[in-house]
Amino acid sequence: MILPEPARCLYIFDEAHHLPIKSNNHFAASLRIRSIRAWLERTGDLIAQLLAEDFIPVDSQSSFDKLQSILQPRLEEYWLMLQPIFLNEGEIRDKHSRYTFPHGILPPEIRDAAGNLFSAFSQLAGLFANIAEELKIELEETSDLSRKELAEQFYPVIGYAQRHAEGSASLWLAYSQEDDLTKPPVARWMTYQEDDTQIETTLYASPVLAADNLSEKLWEQCAGAVLTSATLSSLGNFNLLKLKAGLPESTFFLSIPSPFDFGRAASLTVPNMGCEPSDIESHTAFIVAALPHLLSEPVAALMLFSSRRQMVDVIERLPEDFQNMVLCQDDYQKAQLLQYHRQRVDQGLNSFIFGLASFAEGVDLPGRYCEHVLIAKIPFAVPDDPIEMTLSAWIEQQGQNPFMTLAVPDAAFRLMQASGRLLRSESDFGRITLFDERLFTKRYGKQILASLPPYRQERIEIPDA
């Protein structure tokens, strides 16, 4: 289906809160240095096969051989240039290390070397495009069925090689450019991983905000757009969406009241804990002690964690009979887990789903399939995420507080989504338990609380916790 040009289109995006993330992912790039070198070697064999079957001229193989003779030593040199950074500044975790370039800015010598690699990979992508065109002509014009069949086998392989080279060129372009200091930067980081057989260095680049790309390629081009979702606002406004999606000043925002009687249907419970999530050991121990009390009656529940490590620790510390009632997302495919959960509930058994962020949205468990949602803590983004780090640094450069501008609204949005797993229809009811007293004790927590639906609010004591 061919769509008209954007100027003649009205676009409607459902689940539009995903749009900025999808845009960033589209314009992100990554490259594994050792793997790309091995791929170049294998591709040399492919080029030789194409020449042997007389699908390409000798000049094409000569061009590839020349590019490979340039790329292999340059990739080796680039890898060597990065090693001192890992040794001196990388965050070492066993045999894993990650380094985020501050503000996304690369040292000049690393940026210049990336420019040379961008040029060579662009030429390589062009070479593959020419070969693909030659194979296409062969497919259209040859009357030799065996030759046509062989060309059909080569054609998708060369197409993949072209896309692989183009993706690599995108990474090197991102590493070779200096960012416009008046605009949000590109996050650039790298990881180092060592196993028993090899050492791999992976390079990454990603926009920190989708605003510029969406503005240039969508909002300024289309006749109009409608963005819908059950959750688009945060802290009672649309500022976070405007920041991330770069929506025009002329955008009209509308928040439609929910038909749910939140105060009647659900309570929001925060136990008196005496510890904060930053005290990981005490916080985990409290959750372990509290769960058997909170889930003592026959019930179907969803427990959401922000950390896989904490989720696993909690499961391992629970009594064995309680563990048998837990369905952990690490043990099943999502659809399979939800099916098992419904089957257990239908049989009158207790069933508790333990999951991470992916279970905080898109999970529909109406009625008796979920009568209690438990949330380990206010779901702030991971503070050492390279994209979040780079964006926070840029917001601070603009004279704003990144915690209040970005982290708190984002956490409020995530908590709204997580708590929304409870009430899926007007007849649903139940309880939400949040193991995080900051909702009541911190100023930002009270802001988050005020932005949530008007659930009944309760503070409770947990015996022996």
The helix content is 40-55%
- Give the helix/strand class: alpha/beta
State the total count of DSSP E strands.
14
| Rg calculated over all Cα atoms | 27 Å
Q: Give the amount of beta strand, in percent.
A: 15-25%
What is the averaged pLDDT score?
A: 93
| Tally of contiguous helical segments | 16
**Coarse morphology:** elongated
Low-confidence stretches: none
Task: Report the span from N to C terminus.
Answer: 60 Å
Biggest pleated-sheet summary: 7 strands, parallel
* Total discrete domains: 2
Task: State the strand order across the main sheet.
Answer: 10-11-9-12-13-8-14
Helix/strand order, N-terminal first: EHEHHEEHHEEHEHHEHEHHEHEEHHEHHE
Task: Provide structural commentary.
There is one protein chain. By secondary structure, this protein is an alpha/beta fold. The protein folds into two domains: 6-211, no CATH class; 262-460, P-loop containing nucleotide triphosphate hydrolases (Rossmann fold, 3-Layer(aba) Sandwich), CATH 3.40.50.300. Helices cover 50% and strands 15% of the residues. The chain has helices at 19-27, 33-52, 58-89, 108-141, 145-176, 211-219, 239-245, 262-265, 280-294, 308-317, 320-323, 334-346, 386-397, 402-419, 438-441, 443-451; strands at residues 10-13, 29-32, 91-93, 96-100, 186-194, 199-207, 224-227, 266-271, 300-304, 326-328, 351-355, 372-375, 430-434, 456-460. It has a seven-stranded parallel beta sheet with strand order 10-11-9-12-13-8-14, sandwiched between helices. The chain has a five-stranded antiparallel beta sheet with strand order 2-6-5-4-3. It has a two-stranded parallel sheet with strand order 1-7. A hairpin with a 4-residue loop joins strand 5 and strand 6.
